[in-house]
Each structure stands twice: as structure tokens, then as C-alpha cells.
Amino acid sequence: MSPDLKLIVQLQDLDNQIRELQREIATLPKHIAEIEKALEAHVRKLEADRAALAANQRERKKLDGDIQIQESKSSKLKDQLNEAKTNEQYRAFQKEIEYCQKEIRRSEDRVLALMEESEPLQQNVKAAEAALGEEKQRVEAEKQDARARTAVDQKALETIHVERKEVAGGLPPAVYSAYERIRTKRRGLAVAEAIDGRCSACHLAMRPQFYQDLRCSQDVMFCESCGRILYYIPPISFEDLAAAQPGASQP
């Protein structure tokens, strides 16, 4: 592989790393927004449970007031009952007293029912408060982790950009210009390996003579189908692998 092709392959690898880091950096704010949205669901649950308990308590308070009113009214009617002058007045006072007593019993029954309902409502509030507290801790931990990862990614991105500038500076201007043009056109992938006579990007077969020239040439060559820069890596033989092993005997 020619020195220019080695730099082009290295440049493509750096651009792939840059794209992945930029993708992750862009994704982290969305992740934070999602976990904060989950936290809002816990907040709404707690608010709903508190509202239900508050409604229960308001109704009980109102009923207690109604009972006091009916008891006071009943007491006054009993006093008037003793002062009734006619049977008709007496029966009218009795009827009103009975109505007051009926309303008192109805309100007392409802108060008892509300008291029974209030216990699970209070438990719901406590459980929701505990769940919200745990969720807040989890969300804050994830947010801190996301911020830390963003800082690491930003630092790595700066380092890679410096390395990329050095690599790009080692390429002939015409070759670098062609690389950038193809990368823009092909959604970031400007380089492809030639494998078994095919472009690994577009997967189309090459002309035999073109493939042969690619294997032997030191020039920068482009896929005749997709236009990407092609490189060829010769297969490694068993002898080459054996020779690369530590302690391999020298001929």
C-alpha cells in the first residue's frame, strides 16, 4: 500500500471516530431529557396522590362542619319542640329533628368511609415520595455520568482533530480534495477495501484488469461504480504469520 493510501485509510478511520464521538455528544442531551421526562412522571404521580389525599381531607373537614351545623340545628329544634303550642307544631319540629339526625348519620357514615380510604391514600403518598427520592438520585447520577462522558468525548475529539490535521497535511492537496469531495457525497465513507474483486462499500465486482492494477499499483485509484477511494490489503500467508511470532527462527 502506498504512503498516500495509508494516510487516506488513517484519515478515514479518524473521521469515523470523530463522527461517532459527535454522535454520542449529540445524543447525551437527548438522554438527559429522556431521564428527566421519566422523573416528571414520578412527580406527577406524587402530585396526583397528594391531591387525592387532600381531597379526602377536605371532604372530611366539610362533613365535620356539616355535622356540627346539623347538631346545632337539632339542639335548637329540640328546645322549640318543648315550646310547641299545637300538635301540628310538635310534629313539624319532630320531622325536622329526624331530618337533622338522618343527615348527621349520613355524614358520619361518609366520614368513616373517608377515614378508611385515607390510610391507603397516605401509604400511596409515602410510596410516591420514596420513589421520587430514589428516581431523583438515579437521574442525578446519570446526569453526572453523562456530563463526565461528554467531557471525555470532547477531549478525545480535540485530540483526534489535531491528529487529523497532521494526517491531512501529509497528503497531496489534490488527493485530500478528492477525499473530502467523496466523503461529503458518500455520507462520510470515502474509502473502501477491495476484497475478492469487489468494492466493500458498493459490493459491485470490478473489471479483472482494474482489480489487477489496483493490487499492483501505488497510485490512488477510485471505484468505477461508486467513486470511492480503493485500497487493497494482500492476504497474510501462514509463513508470514509464523515469521511474525515472537522467537521465530531467522533463516
Question: What topology does this entry show?
Answer:
Blueprint: H1 3-82, H2 87-169, H3 173-185, E1 191-195, E2 198-199, H4 208-216, E3 221-222, E4 229-231, H5 238-244
Parallel strand pairs: 1-4
Antiparallel strand pairs: 1-2, 3-4
Structure description:
With 251 residues, the chain is mainly α. The protein folds into two domains: 3-169, Helix Hairpins; 173-240, no CATH class. It has five helices and four strands; from the N terminus they run αααββαββα. It has a four-stranded mixed sheet. The longest helix is centred in the middle third of the chain and has 83 residues, at 87-169.
Order of strands across the main sheet: 2-1-4-3
Tally of distinct domains: 2
Q: Which structural class is indicated by helix and strand composition? A: mainly alpha
Using the CA coordinates, give the radius of gyration: 41 Å
**Strand residue content:** under 5%
Q: What would the principal axes of the Cα set say about the shape?
A: rod-shaped
CATH architecture of the largest domain: Orthogonal Bundle
Q: How many strands?
A: 4
Number of helices: 5
What features would you highlight for this structure?
251 residues; mainly alpha; Helix Hairpins; 2 domains; 5 helices; 4 strands; 76% helix; 5% strand; rod-shaped
